[in-house]
Design brief:
heterodimer, A: 115 residues, mainly beta, four-stranded antiparallel beta sheet, B: 112 residues, six-stranded mixed beta sheet, five-stranded antiparallel beta sheet
Chain lengths: 115, 112
């Protein structure tokens, strides 16, 4: 199967600090990973597409300077929420497609709470 | 870009009855349509998917139908059980490394 690991599963940080979230594909190489944000009782909204070895592609309305994405290897993508504020509190979740086989697998998600 | 509409937003059924969730998509280039089940606080889990070259797919109590001409697809759950209670999302994608666009979700409640 395809396994995607995400860490941490939850984090609480102070307003103004930065938080890094890791997304790893454990048993396959992922040239592309996706980062979503989900507010309570809402759908998953795509934030950006992470591409290994190149810049991420951000969706309209997502601040690239605030949500830094790094995809330095074929198995790891990171999302850094910089200068976090309470409105950034949300469920962040990554996904990857195993070699373009249409099998999108999600990480376990990260519950971010900014206080 | 792609726009996926899903309805109903909430659905209550009696245990043993069937549940149907409907979605429409806007981009005729989309060719992959997965359905996800999400329990509270957990990751979405793929329950069934269909590609545009197939009109219907079934897996035990779950089936999905696709009408490419009308650009709509539906999820059918038969003989519902309390453990089917969750939020269900439909989605559309152009497949292979392309982003997935989700519907708003349907909260399904199966009443014992």
């Amino acid at each position: 199967g395809a396994v995607v690991s995400q860490h941490p599963s939850w984090v609480i940080c102070k307003s103004g600090t930065s938080v890094k979230i890791e997304c790893r594909s454990l048993d396959f190489q992922a040239t592309t990973m996706f980062w979503y944000r989900q507010f309570p009782k809402q759908s998953l909204m795509l934030m950006a597409t992470s591409n290994e070895g190149s810049k991420a592609t951000y969706e309209q309305g997502v601040e690239k300077d605030k949500f830094l994405i790094n995809h330095a290897s074929l198995t790891l993508s990171t999302l850094t929420v910089t200068s976090a504020h309470p409105e950034d509190s949300s469920f962040y979740i990554c996904s990857a497609d195993k070699q373009g086989n249409y099998g999108y697998t999600f990480g376990s998600g990260t519950r971010l709470t900014v206080v | 870009g792609e726009n996926v509409e899903q309805h109903p937003s909430t659905l209550s059924v009696q245990e043993g009855d069937s549940a149907v969730i409907k979605c429409t998509y806007s981009d005729s280039a989309s060719n992959y349509f997965p359905w996800y089940k999400q329990e509270l606080g957990k990751r979405p889990q793929l329950i069934i998917d269909i590609r545009s070259n197939v009109g219907e797919k079934k897996d035990q109590r779950i089936a999905v139908t696709l009408n490419k001409t009308a650009k709509h697809f539906s999820l059918h759950i038969t003989e519902t059980q309390p453990e089917d209670s969750a939020v269900y999302f439909c989605a559309a994608s152009k497949g292979g490394y392309q982003k997935v666009t989700f519907g708003i979700g349907t909260k399904l409640q199966v009443i014992p």
